[in-house]
Amino acid sequence: MGDFSFKTLEYTRPDFENIKKEIEVLTKQVKNAGSFEDVQAAMNTVEELSSKLETQAVIAFIRHTLDTTDEFYEKENETVDNELPLLMVNLTEFNKGLLESPYREDINREYGEELLKRIQRGLDSFDPVLVPYMQEEAKLTNAYQKLMATAKIDFDGQVLNLYGVQKYFEHPDREMRRKAFKAYSDFYNSNEEKMEEIFAELVKIRNKMGKALGHENFIPLGYLQQGRSDYGQKEVAAFREQVRKEIVPLCSKLYEAQAKRIGVDSLMVYDEKFIFPDGNAEPIGDEAYLVEEARKMYHDLSPETGDFIDFMIDHDLMDLVNKPNKASTGYMTSLKDYKAPFVFSCFNNTIGDMQVLTHELGHAFAGYEAMRHQKTSEYFSPSTDICEIHSMAMEQFSYPYAEQFFGDKADKFKFAHLQEAMTFVPFGVAVDEFQHIMYANPELTPKERTLEWHKLEEKYMPWRKYNEDEFMDRGGFWYHKLHIFLYPFYYINYTLTTMGAMELKKRFEENKDQAWEDYLNLCRAGASKSYLELLKVANLSVPFEEGSVAKAISYPKEVLLSEIEKMNS
Questions:
Q1: Does the residue 154 lie in any domain?
Q2: 47 and 119 share one domain
Q3: What is the mean pLDDT of residues 160-170?
Q4: What does each C-alpha distance from 4 to 67, 167, 318, 335 come to in angstroms?
Q5: Both 127 and 173 in a single domain?
Q6: Would residue 520 count as lying in a domain?
Q7: Does residue 132 sit in the same domain as residue 15?
Q8: Mean pLDDT of the chain, nearest integer
């Protein structure tokens, strides 16, 4: 790896044709192998080829999202999007050779049984017939992302992007909040037709992909793409119902208390982010200050996180400042050749900035550890229903350090952050149920789709009021959630993993050393086990089992209701 900086990393377009030829040769080597050593040598070479290719593809992707108007990286990203599905045809043949190999037991002994199971799931979710659909899907998702990234909203004498205007959702002046939310809403309303077209095509294409693999629609394929092996739609539906019974009533209480606290008769959507009458907690410094405080925090938290944050800062592996034409998102990705995570965000001087320094860096820390403890890159990143435990638990572990970031407003941060962890969950399960409805009912018109979202808001967010915003009131809010467009069936993971994060939070308060050991073991395990097995690694409950949601939220519920009582006394 050596000394490197992301800004100066050289990008070279991968030679896709040559890589395909090399994989064809290696496939023959596996099929004609006379020993396990021959198979392992081929596996190692494919891993090396894949790592180099993925690293270059990720560099192009990051630089494209840093400036979505940069034509060079936009075209490179498009090229990668077109070529990767074609390359998957060759990789599929190689992986079939591994599954049919007489040395399967040797592979299991060397890497554990999960590797071939992951390979089988990959084969179950791909067929060469999908290639043109995948290429078209990438074009559509890029179109949506560019539409969001290039948003220009005239507000308060400035031209703002989506992250910039959201800062005003926490403004102390209620009229300013109302106008800001209306400006945000108007952007989506004015682009409704474009978004309708993009999503309608995505539903059509994804359902064709599902049917091409023998499914009734896209949903089973969506689950396979998320790497789900030991639960399905039935379990997820049972979890959503637990949320409706246990968390929705709690959120109603939290918002009722908030309305009284900020002095409004009826809490409107533009009031939801305004938690305290004298204003919300805000970070007390700029990006450089926050990053330096994050360095101190991670050094204090553990030796492992100290090494990690130094690596991230020293190698320029974070881009956090909000800039024009920067993609309106936050993510962590990996540069495998360098065993280096990369974190991307758009700071806007809200508590969300602190969440990036814990949530996305939680993902990054887990990747950093797995890349240093697992034998194969197949195990570097588990399915997303585990990955989000890494990030959300790290958010909770940061609470003792809140004063470094928020000064005398630290308690405000902790309350607001914990409340949002709870109030988010009903929205998260609504996003999941919405997607199930969309792919199961592709004949719905655009306006009927939006009506379905309106119904889900009534079911999971009965407190939600839009104050005569016609577009939002009829269900337009779903358009802003990029996961619905870009990452189908991902969003439920945030809610499932909230349960695990809350269990770790309680454990961290009771026995920090034990909680950290469980968390570190989970990070280092990567994807080497299945979802349910990884929960056992961290001593966590299964969120689908009846009563698990009530158990997981019991501690944060107690904390929040106790804090509300203190505020009212």
A1: yes
A2: yes
A3: 91
A4: 22, 34, 14, 12
A5: no
A6: no
A7: yes
A8: 95
Starting at the earlier edge strand, list the strands of the sheet with 318-321.
318-321, 340-347, 331-335
Indicate if the alpha-carbon torsion angle 209, 211, 212, 215 is positive or negative. positive
pLDDT tens figures, 465-487 = 998 899 999 999 999 999 999 99
| 343 DSSP β-pair partners | 318, 332
For residue 200, the surrounding DSSP H or E stretch is: helix 192-212
Residues 14 and 119 in one domain: yes
Which residue from 390, 239, 188 is spatially nearest to 305, judged by alpha carbons? 390
Give the count of domains, the chain.
2
Handedness of CA 259, 434, 481, 455 (dihedral sign): negative
pLDDT digits (tens, 9 = 90+) for 356-394: 899 999 999 999 999 999 999 999 999 889 999 999 999
* Residue 154 CB coordination number (10 Å): 10
In a domain, 102, yes or no: yes
3-state secondary structure of 202: helix
pTM for this structure?
Answer: 0.89
What pLDDT, in 10s, does the model give residues 396-436? 999 999 999 999 999 999 999 999 999 999 999 999 999 99
Total residue count of the chain as it appears in this document: 569
pLDDT-derived band at 328, boundaries 50, 70, 90 = confident
Name the percent of the chain lying above pLDDT 90: 91
Contacts of 173 (CB under 8 A, 6+ apart): none
